């Protein structure tokens, strides 16, 4: 006859072993969001190309800056270079307005140990969307100031934080992005400004505002995703705080038009991907967006 105490002991041991395994995974891949700068970000099979890119960093930076200037009439500064299987992804930030983060890819020949300065490319629509999201934030800067005040006040009221500015610089990836939210434009009047930008990127803010004066801004064409993290380690996302913030966001007036999502994560972020995709994250988003028009 099996002793019930023995069974209970074995179950406890199994639970302890499982917890230890989960903790080991978190120790390997996760870091506190306050400590995350994006420097550990990696792409698949990028060890060799990463080394080649760093050894030719000056050439890589010149090629990327030239690409943005020639193709998009935009001056950028390079923040981070991350090797991938046949090249390197180079993360940049625009200089001046419109402000945005983006990236481009430079091919690398591993056999010749060379970078292809003439072969720089980007994913379809990625840079275009980054530029117009920056234009949107610039044109409607008063509304975005209201949004900034709203999100920046939240850590004063709740035990939550945003991501570090360095993380956005090093692995932000694209669009108009702050430590608390990012903006993506899918279409509509703002997207239509892109050809005008290529024709004359030096337009002043008043000229851009005249171009959208009295235009209908379709909120379904604009995604504004707010992401926060718990301030303390080893605590679950606070459901009470989450619900209160969702209510405040729903009631808040004067914000930019768009479909809003809100995410509240625990304190950790995957240092290799720059994301928190854990099952314990709280989310208010698709298909039940908070719509502001």
Key phrases:
293 residues, 7-stranded mixed β-sheet, 22% strand, flat, 41% helix, single chain, alpha+beta, 10 helices, 4-stranded antiparallel β-sheet
At a glance:
The protein is α+β, with helices and mostly antiparallel strands and 293 residues long. The chain has helices at 4-29, 47-55, 57-72, 126-139, 141-157, 165-171, 188-191, 194-199, 205-212, 239-251; strands spanning 30-32, 76-83, 87-94, 101-109, 114-115, 160-161, 176-177, 181-185, 222-230, 258-265, 268-270, 282-284, 290-292.
Give your account of this protein's structure.
The chain is of the alpha+beta class and 293 residues long. The strands form 3 sheets. Strands 6, 7, 8, 9, 10, 12 and 13 form a 7-stranded mixed sheet that branches. It is flat and about 60 Å long. The mean pLDDT is 91.
Q: What is the topological layout?
A:
Layout: H1 4-29, E1 30-32, H2 47-55, H3 57-72, E2 76-83, E3 87-94, E4 101-109, E5 114-115, H4 126-139, H5 141-157, E6 160-161, H6 165-171, E7 176-177, E8 181-185, H7 188-191, H8 194-199, H9 205-212, E9 222-230, H10 239-251, E10 258-265, E11 268-270, E12 282-284, E13 290-292
Parallel strand pairs: 9-10
Antiparallel strand pairs: 1-11, 2-3, 3-4, 4-5, 6-9, 7-8, 8-9, 10-12, 10-13
Helix pairs in contact: 4-5
Radius of gyration: 22 Å
Portion of residues in beta strands equals: 15-25%
* Low-pLDDT residue spans: none
Q: Portion of residues in helices?
A: 40-55%
Shape: flat
The computed structural class is alpha+beta
What's the quaternary structure here?
Answer: single chain
Mean pLDDT: 91
Q: Characterize the biggest β-sheet.
A: 7 strands, mixed
SSE order, one letter for each helix or strand: HEHHEEEEHHEHEEHHHEHEEEE
Q: Ends: how far apart?
A: 69 Å
Total beta-strand segments: 13
What count of helical segments does DSSP give? 10
